[in-house]
Amino acid sequence: MAFKTINGNVVHYELIGEAKAKNLIVFSNGLGTDFRIWLPLFDELGDDVSVLLYDSRGHGLSGGADKPFGMADLVSDLAGLCDELGIRKATFCGLSVGGLVCQGLWQERPDLFRKLILCDTAPRIGTAEIWAERIAGIEKNGLESAADSSMARWFTPAFHEDRADELAGYRVMMMRQSLSGYLSTCAALRDTDFSDVLPTITVPTLFVVGDQDGSTPPATVEAGSKLVPGARFEVIDDCAHIPSVEQPEALADLIQGFMRKQVN
After folding, report:
1. Any coiled-coil ranges, and where (predicted)?
2. Contact at 8 Å (CB) between 220 and 122?
3. Which of 86, 157, 165, 222 fits a 20 to 30 Å CA distance from 210?
4. How many CA atoms lie within 13 A of 261 on its CB side?
């Protein structure tokens, strides 16, 4: 385990490979998860790929949940971690809210980007009303009250039936996140819309979505992809919101093909 203090908070991360490697991918996790959602990809990615994983603020073993935070803080944390580790350029891959963090990072620090992968995400996820309702429900009834509905969005019915042990494990992952960190991240999602940012992206960009995603459906992700000039859009079959867990081989194939393609 490795830790850095960024913006006054401890950030848990793991760097596998070289920070200055040309093939470095920086992964950003989704709401209610930590960087372990990316681990199933490791057996599928080539040995020449370097990886930076980190737990976003208020999630996993990272701190910062003791006071409210917003999207600007999540973006600043990632930028600060990259600077602290000496990362000058990388491919960034964000899932769900992690995808929004990557979009915000592009807005603030385009110098850091070689390529961008936006996985099961959009410039805006949900509505203010949806997030207000979720926040109010969790404040009243606890994080467990949102667990079953989250699992239904995260994973397909086939995953629920055939991989029940894994499902139980990811439910435990969600339940062990900080309540205040989860709620602050919900508020960040409520308040974020990067629709004006996507058209400014000038690096090669890949959008990926599971065909059964219940959080950011394929039509929503495809609409976002159309805002980015020249972006590529791909759908992974038999998959919901977290392809790195449900279909890691398919996601790795897309990532590696995208990484190998030369930038003009």
Report:
1. none
2. yes
3. 165
4. 15
